[in-house]
Design a protein that fits this description.
Two copies of one chain form a homodimer. By secondary structure, chain A is an alpha+beta fold. In chain A, 30% of the residues lie in helices and 24% in strands. Chain A folds into two domains: 7-154, 2-Layer Sandwich (60s Ribosomal Protein L30, Chain: A); 170-327, Phosphoribosyl-aminoimidazole Synthetase, Chain A, domain 2 (Alpha-Beta Complex), CATH 3.90.650.10. In chain A, α1 runs parallel beside α3 (107-124).
């Protein structure tokens, strides 16, 4: 009998329980998952309860291919939700994982994905505390889709949100742009580069810890995923009703990404990242914020790329190397499908 | 231009933002969703914080067809997660929703699904506080898949869990078995019955409120979804290392469901429900628990169907009308795929 996923693996019976035990629980094992209940009970008594605030997020992952240079759908599903929770200034602690498996998926592919999730969760300091598995017929999925939802606890005193930007804030980016999008695309389309290009998929909660310790008045954080930096900055400009102005040359881009974008007609500002954040920081904390980021392995390439303005509210402007200014629109969206 | 989902609706740009605004936010609108942040911040300060415990759960919904007698994937996605959270004795409060849409899905189908979610959330007393949308190419999905994750707050003093059953506990079921599974199957296979059969999809948190007020020492709660009552009782028997013995005749089954099961060779004990719970209650509270359930609209058909035994630990036995006893195994799983 082929060792593949069958419809019965999603049907709530013995085969599903065996799959949960042999594949999911064996990799992701922790005291919460071992409750094996309809929902998992978490005690908050060890945490400081004054003014307790939760951060909640959800993200579904449908990346194609499942494995790409520098990552896979499993680690991506952990990093993506860890990062979403971290961007509110919260410490991500617990994740749930929902799997939609396609009939015929090879069991060892699933095992590799789950092992990768497990390692990514450990490296991110979070636990997968609840899960669910469904199976759809061959041709109604694409191997594995994963949803992760995340719960974090907000730091006391930190006030971060998309509408908190103020004119004069400095715009910092944690590193080079576009690695994830171009790495996934290169694998999908069989492109090769002189130097191997890896996805930047990584958990940003540690970088946020370091950044907020140095710059506790940080106003906005956003990871520049789908739609790239252009989408993240446009969204923050609209939410805060301010203008954002960046130096196009100041935004770091690796030569391989720049070359691929040149060849394919992409703007690196609109290509997805999975391990880069943009921070809006008040001017008096900008210098220490940048140094703090650069001291962290995931922020070594951090750069100061622009500032928040009162003028042209709701818009992103880029100053070009020849001294001009262009409006960088919210991308329409069709650039790179199935990137996360 | 056709009013359908296109790949660009999932690509993080303007079209995705328009979709979120026009379809999701307009139906599901609340102060949390309006934060439009990477994760949603929730204040717990209004809640009693002593010994605070959270309940977390996740469930993906891939039911086919999307609309069935008595419900649809939208309301089901709310009820399923509300029920999972309620089964730990917690009050479900906040849900996240992750959508995987198939390219070509008609926009009005999506709108109907989201409206149904919105109504179900209102009726269940929960809010959808965070969301995500992905789009996959035509042929890699099935219209809409939805993941919901749920967060609830545990009641103080209630101790409910799958391993807490004790010999002598009474086994109560909240109503007739198998309505959901047979309703979905009938729609899918074009079966018709003399009387219309509707899914029992419903939020059980209100019923749990009433039950726990009357029987605060309730030991186990489980909703009998995939795998039906047989799976739920087998799982509880294993988790608590006890035997469970039920009177086969005492388990209520509607005539139409009984007839369909007879015709198709199904055991009603293994058919899915989406609005029925099983409760293990200590003998001294069994009577008041049953009365309390029967006083609630979703528990009118509640019945006492059996008890927990020290013998045959880990097994479910059914006493038949002619006086015999049979072992009811955990179903293998292939009975009814894509039922939720």
């Amino acid at each position: 009998m082929e060792n593949v996923i069958r419809m019965a693996h999603g049907a709530g019976g013995r085969m599903m329980n065996d799959l949960i035990r042999d594949v999911f629980a064996s990799s992701l094992d922790n005291a919460y998952l071992r409750q094996m209940a309809d929902s998992t009970v978490i005690e908050l008594t060890d945490l400081p309860l004054a003014d307790l605030q939760l951060a909640l997020s959800t993200d579904s992952f449908t990346v194609s291919p499942l494995f790409f240079p520098g990552g896979d759908i499993g680690s991506l599903a952990i990093h993506g939700t860890v990062n979403d929770v971290a961007m509110s200034g919260a410490r991500p602690l617990w994740l749930t994982a929902g799997f939609i498996l396609e009939e015929g998926l090879e069991m060892d592919v699933l095992e590799r994905v789950v092992c990768s999730m497990s390692e990514a969760a450990r490296n991110s300091g979070v636990q997968v505390v609840a899960g669910d598995t469904k199976v759809v017929e061959r041709g109604h999925g694409d191997g594995v889709y994963i949803n992760t939802a995340g719960v974090g606890i907000l730091r006391e005193g930190v006030e971060i949100g998309p509408s908190r930007a103020r004119p004069g804030d400095r715009v910092l980016i944690s590193g080079a742009l576009g690695d994830h999008g171009i790495a996934v695309l290169s694998k999908r389309e069989g492109l090769t580069f002189e130097t191997e290009l890896l996805s930047d998929s990584a958990p940003l909660n540690g970088l946020v810890d370091v950044l907020l310790a140095a710059a506790p008045h940080t106003r906005c954080l956003r990871d520049a995923t789908r739609g790239g930096l252009a989408a993240a900055l446009n969204e923050l400009a609209v939410a805060s009703d301010v203008g954002v102005e960046i130096e196009e040359e100041a935004a770091p881009v690796r030569p391989a990404v720049a070359a691929a974008c040149e060849m394919l007609g992409f703007d690196p500002l609109t290509v997805a990242n999975e391990g880069k954040l943009v921070a809006f920081v008040p001017p008096e904390e900008a210098e220490v914020a940048l140094e703090a980021m650069q001291s962290h392995p995931l922020g070594r390439g951090a750069a100061h790329i622009g500032l928040v303005t009162e003028e042209h509210a709701g818009m992103l402007l880029a100053r070009t190397s020849i001294g001009g200014r262009r409006v960088v629109d919210m991308p329409l969206g069709e650039l790179l499908p199935r990137i996360c």
